[in-house]
Amino acid sequence: MTGAGAMIDEWYPVGLFSQLTEEVSKTALMGKPIEVTRTADGAAQVRSSGGRALPVRVRYGHVWSSLGNPFKELFAIPEADQPGRRFVDVGVVRVRCSPLRAVENFLDIAHFPFVHTDILGAEPHTEVESYKVEIREKEDEVWATQVKFYQPQAAKSATGGITTEYMYRVPAPTCSVLYKTCPPRPKEWDVITLFVQPLAEDLCDVWPWMALFDDVTPMTDLIHFQQMIFLQDRSILENQIPALLPLDPGMEIPTRADMTSIAYRRWLKRHNYLYGAQLVAQ
Predict the structure, then answer these.
(1) Which of 8, 20, 184, 220 is most buried (most C-beta within 10 Å)?
(2) Has residue 70 been placed in a domain?
């Protein structure tokens, strides 16, 4: 597939397993129409528009598939098997942007006070402190650690402003996992993920999912809180220029706060993950 590069062989979310029925749900993956359904025996099934059976996995509340032949299993999130957590299927938000732009925005800390004002950030607390970024060669993942930021309401379960600690992990080109301070259990991490389905190079469905320690907040409130956060991001994402994610270092001017983005773009280019990317200035 032209422009897909190595991303053709990756796993992508294509729907919530809990919402599948025997009636065919039509969607798309990397510009190709696909059909998702539940078989009579309860299994998830994904087919191309021509009827070709595509590979399927069901994990983290979602159905995953690929147009190619994934050479590795879907990435692991150990917290998904941890007793006592609440698993939150947030739903889907359609965004007219590159799927890679959606992931990069999720990794951006500096926008909190300006886009998520009085929730994930607030003036005058706008400085991004130094943090650590690395590409872990063994896992082949991008990680940002020792990230700290003051937040008026770090989570729905938070009762006041706290300095929140973050860790970001990118295990796949259109997926990111965020570990952040858990207000009810300071020794644990809340897990918030962004699973992005590339419908086209400039259009995607974003499927957030969470694994939390929160026995108090109603499920509806947890879902609405996370949807509100991402809907605040959508207007920013849909107005970014260029629409595709630039991978040439000279196309945009980074700051110290953009270290994670720089590593992510370098990692994408290294692996030929180019669907939704722009290599040179146009």
Answers:
(1) 20
(2) no
The answer to whether residues 193 and 255 belong to one domain is yes
Mean pLDDT score, 241-269 = 79
Supply the range of the domain harboring residue 24.
5-65
Neighbours of 2 (CB within 10 A): 6
Question: Is the distance from CB of 196 to CB of 90 less than 8 angstroms?
Answer: no
Rounded to an integer, the average pLDDT of 219-225 is 88
Domain count, the chain: 2
Is residue 3 within 8 Å of residue 274, measured between CB atoms?
A: yes
Burial (CB < 10 A; 0-12, 13-18, 19+), residue 110, is middle
Coil, strand or helix: which one is 102?
A: helix
Q: What is the CATH number of the domain that holds 25?
A: 2.20.25.680
Give the containing element (helix H, strand E) for 193: strand 189-200
State the pLDDT at residue 113.
45
Cα gap 186→164, rounded to integer Å = 10
Task: Phi first, then psi: give them for residue 31, nearest 5 degrees.
Answer: 85, 0
Highest mean pLDDT among 77-81, 114-118, 246-250: 77-81
Predicted structure pTM score: 0.87
Least confident of 19-33, 35-49, 70-84, 104-118: 104-118
